[in-house]
Amino acid sequence: ACFLDSMATLGLAAYGYGIRYEYGIFNQKIRDGWQVEEADDWLRHGNPWEKARPEYMLPVHFYGRVEHSASGAKWIDTQVVLALPYDTPVPGYMNNTVNTMRLWSARAPNDFNLRDFNVGDYIQAVLDRNLAENISRVLYPNDNFFEGKELRLKQEYFVVAATLQDIIRRFKASKFGSTDVVRNVFDSFPDQVAIQLNDTHPAMAIPELMRIFVDIEKLPWDKAWDITKRTFAYTNHTVLPEALERWPVDLVEKLLPRHLQIIYEINQRHLDHIASLFPNNVDRLRRMSLIEEGGTKRINMAHLCIVGSHAVNGVAKIHSEIVRTQVFEDFAALEPEKFQNKTNGITPRRWLLLCNPGLAELIAEKIGEDYVRDLSQLTKLHEFVDDDLFIREVAKVKQENKVKFALYLEKEYKVKINPSSMFDVHVKRIHEYKRQLMNCLHIITMYNRIRRDPAKLFVPRTVIIGGKAAPGYHMAKMIIKLINAVAQVVNNDPMVGSKLKVIFLENYRVSLAEKVIPATDLSEQISTAGTEASGTGNMKFMLNGALTIGTMDGANVEMAEEAGEENLFIFGMRVEDVTELDRKGYNAQLYYDRLPELKQAIDQIKSGFFSPKDPNLFNDVVNMLFHHDRFKVFADYEAYVKCQEKVSELYLNSKAWTKMVIRNIAAAGKFSSDRTIKEYARDIWHVEPSDLKIPPPNEPRDAGQDKTPNGTAA
């Protein structure tokens, strides 16, 4: 969404393509401390922003078989599903540009199950239309996890096949009546079209475009492959092995038989090339193959994307470095110039102007309004870091946002929180690598300290944790239950009173982020170093006047680089330390034995202190922490708790805290998605952003202004 906003604001002729899911990410309810999923029937009352475009409906083929003849390969006896596009306008910021997001919905053809001479069960045939239309029924809710389901592969091919037909139709229309020799009509394709693959989910676009060029347009393989590679670029979004898409060959063979043949051909030529460079190196061939042997044969979709693209990028410096030197090191050794970095960004229109008008207005009073389109201008705020009036105003806006959020929480969830306490916020998908468990251990530690010495000064905190767990992710669901169990004890202990409150924020989503982020004092970004590709919540908090406690991971590294490491609360192992600990072997027991407060917290969880009705409830969690914690919670616990003490200490000095906030906001300019998109445009798509304001429709235009230069459509 941020990228679409920036592309329109920068005047790029760009389209966002995807699936119009009937049911989006589930709504989360918390019942008795457990996550319960409900369907998100978001279209029930209609969607006024979308326009169905049946005139652009396109067929998508599945199953069938391949027939080879002298004239080439033919994919026949297929099942057809229709793709109906729905267009949503994407307006640029104040530039009279409106781009299009086109989402495909699956429809059964009218002769579905009726064309073949069947037994005449007309009713059943009509009911069976659902089978085809299920393709766009529901979004798979997994985060950083690959589940090789046939319906998911159908969804991936569906969006790819419809989109490529649409792109080629538009390309041919632009060529209509031109002098191009028909045989060479596609020569200019990569100059006119750039396709960015958002992770490996649309990877089937590579064999699909080859199928169109070779089987339908009758281009020679080498020419088709050259055009294909120059058209595609691939963005990698994760390094977690369980998230990488590896589709079973037999599933692809059943669903997309021609595409499997094309993938085999791509792989054969790819491996021949490597064998010519590294003779007798069978291990390198095995590592670099698109096909993984052993057990069930699988297609490594990331390898397909790398081989079939002219550019590959990660989404933060540290992530792109890991992609280049570890995950895909063999490919980077072969073509180092192919690998790039494009650090993620967020749109300041949604994530400042819209969600935090008070702060946006305050900034505009000091540096003018131009920063909204050029966020680097926020550096001008450095001049006001010692301005007492400005400091007070920034603190006042934050306080107003906190009061507003506290009232919302009271109204919607009937929970009372103290707006003068520090709002310590940890909102993101629930996952072991994001280490919500470490935050939970810190909460228990704070609780134990208050009870041990009730008279001691304690900086009051409201800890807010929110996020959805994938429905099939047992450990993530246990983490939610644990947080709620701890909250139950802490929030009802009279010795604690208003010093510490724990809230699990139900059904975290963008609209709720827009409310909680402007009210946040402390942003939790505590993934194990080397696991969070970038993160964007970290940037949203920074722009909205929160301070960050975090590891040197993802974009946190660049945030610290921009603001100065002394203006973030950075703690814990760096990537090198994690690597070294893996080499030595991580032994959780050592930390448990060495750290009395950690031992106390774990013993409480283990003994049923937080689950008196079921003392063994959290056995799986404790067992994981001791015996198979890939993300090393105990190893960073001590540094995390010590760092949190520094946070509390600074929060006592409101002026020093707010000055640090201003330094952070002043350094947030790099993290605009406008900057990110300019880098994609110049380094990958080879188009120039335009800051020309198109005249509105009600203003007459000069004849000379009527012509638009032909650029690449991204």
Topology:
Blueprint: H1 2-9, E1 15-19, E2 27-31, E3 34-38, E4 51-52, E5 58-62, E6 65-69, E7 72-76, E8 79-91, E9 98-107, H2 122-127, H3 129-133, H4 150-175, H5 189-192, E10 195-198, H6 205-216, H7 221-231, E11 232-235, E12 246-248, H8 249-255, H9 257-277, H10 282-288, E13 291-292, E14 298-300, H11 301-307, E15 312-314, H12 317-327, H13 329-334, E16 339-341, H14 348-354, H15 357-367, H16 388-413, E17 422-427, H17 436-452, E18 461-466, H18 474-491, E19 500-505, H19 510-516, E20 522-525, H20 537-543, E21 547-550, H21 556-563, E22 569-570, H22 575-584, H23 588-594, H24 596-607, H25 619-627, H26 633-652, H27 654-666, H28 673-685
Parallel strand pairs: 1-9, 10-11, 11-15, 15-16, 17-18, 17-20, 18-19, 20-21, 21-22
Antiparallel strand pairs: 2-3, 4-8, 5-8, 6-7, 8-9, 12-14, 13-14
Helix pairs in contact: 1-28, 6-7, 6-9, 8-9, 16-27, 17-18, 17-24, 17-26, 23-24
Family: Belongs to the glycogen phosphorylase family.
Function: Allosteric enzyme that catalyzes the rate-limiting step in glycogen catabolism, the phosphorolytic cleavage of glycogen to produce glucose-1-phosphate, and plays a central role in maintaining cellular and organismal glucose homeostasis.
Region (Disordered): 688-714
Describe the structure.
- The protein has 714 residues and is an alpha/beta fold.
- Among the domains are: 185-345 and 674-689, Glycogen Phosphorylase B (Rossmann fold, 3-Layer(aba) Sandwich); 418-653, Glycogen Phosphorylase B (Rossmann fold).
- Helix content is 44%, strand content 15%.
- The strands form 6 sheets. The protein has a 6-stranded parallel beta sheet, sandwiched between helices. Strands 1, 4, 5, 8 and 9 form a 5-stranded mixed beta sheet that branches.
- Helix 17 crosses helix 26 (633-652) and helix 23 (588-594) crosses helix 24.
- 42% of the residues are buried.
- Homodimer; enzymatically active. Interacts with PPP1R3B; recruits the phosphatase PP1 which dephosphorylates and inactivates PYGL/glycogen phosphorylase.
- Its cofactor is pyridoxal 5'-phosphate.
- Belongs to the glycogen phosphorylase family.
- Its EC number is 2.4.1.1.
